[in-house]
Amino acid sequence: MNENIVLRNDEPTVDDQLERKDLVLSVARAVATCDPPHVFGIHGDWGSGKTSFLYQLQACLTGKCPQLPDAPERRPIREGNKTTVVWFEAWRYQHEAAPIVALLHEIRTQLPWTSKALQEGRKLAEVSIRSALLSLEDLTKKIGISASKIEEAGHRWEEENLATRLPSHTIRQHLEHALKALLGGSKKSPQRLVVMVDDLDRCEARAAYQLLEGIKIYLNLPNCVFVLGMNYKIIESAIEAHLPKRESQDPALRSREYFDKLCQTVVHLPALKDVSRFLGNCLSEMPGAKSICEVVKEENCLPANARKVKAFANLLLRYAPRFREQLEAPGTAPACSQRLLIFACLYHFHPEIYRLIEVHPQFYNELWKWCQQDGSARDHDAFEGLRAPLIPTSPTASDSAFADPNEGNILRIQGLVRKHDAITPTDVQTFLVE
Prior knowledge:
Blueprint: H1 21-33, E1 38-43, H2 50-62, E2 83-89, H3 99-110, H4 112-120, H5 127-143, H6 152-161, H7 168-183, E3 192-198, H8 205-218, E4 224-230, H9 232-242, H10 251-262, E5 265-268, H11 275-283, H12 289-299, H13 306-319, H14 324-328, H15 333-349, H16 351-359, H17 364-372, H18 414-419, H19 425-431
Parallel strand pairs: 1-4, 1-5, 2-3, 3-4
């Protein structure tokens, strides 16, 4: 690999790499002005940029993103910065006995007044703040388990005041009082708490359901807004697996109704608008990138998923420089780019087929034949499960259909393969990924 090539990471960012600035601003305004309690769902497939979207949303609401200390600060969308954001990575706490307790612990530790209280301890002058902190500490015990210890005064206070288990409505009242004291503000200008819950769909089904139940039971409060980053299909499956069974109702319908009642607003993150341009940004100044991106745009041969395109770009950064001369010469660039993309896509998205071609170069002819046939003739075991590309490339391709751009079983290079029937075993050896 060229020593000057730097492979891209997949870390979330506040930069608008996916051209979603207008959508972020729109959602930020809705979060800042909605009538709480309110729950927003940010839906997207894995790799669609949900965490980056939440980072950008947080920066719009508060002017900064603590998860990225080096990110430049900006002006908050709400005048006076009346929004406090708490960040919660759900999957990190999925094995806790009571996930809602971990969430309450994060709320307590991330609120600005809380950190002050922990630093000053007994010197804290605000009695209401002390009471609020102790209430949050003790309420976690009433719900399930103890989150942490504030100070010895907390133990004495809880022994004297909260010796018995509280019903959920009393816990909600205590939480509401505690959060109002910690957030500050006034009746005319109330502060609101926005809780960003990321990676909910990475949790085990039980943990995801328990966390949603806890939010519904304990944190359905007048000053709380939740923003859940998730693939709602996965969350609905988790709900369906844990809702009590009722013979008279369809489980899938019940899980959808549960989700709709909990989540009042769902925002669907759009697929990549321009895959070839995003790929070009990932490839940066790589020799031959322009020619490769032109073919990608013309053939629509990559999924519209940011993470998958980034990973594919890293493969090209290792692989494509071998063909620098052919990719930069006008006479050879188109054909070289097409063949390079065929083998890179097989290597990255269809490794089983690539492996057969790698071991048996003549098997490429079987792939070419398969790409010429319609659905009724496609009976080769090696291609079982593969589907035609997103857009029909031939009137005879009767099984061609529009499909989810995130699906992995789409042979998107079908059109490219059809154009290259003259690839010999020697050519195959030339374009194998090393």
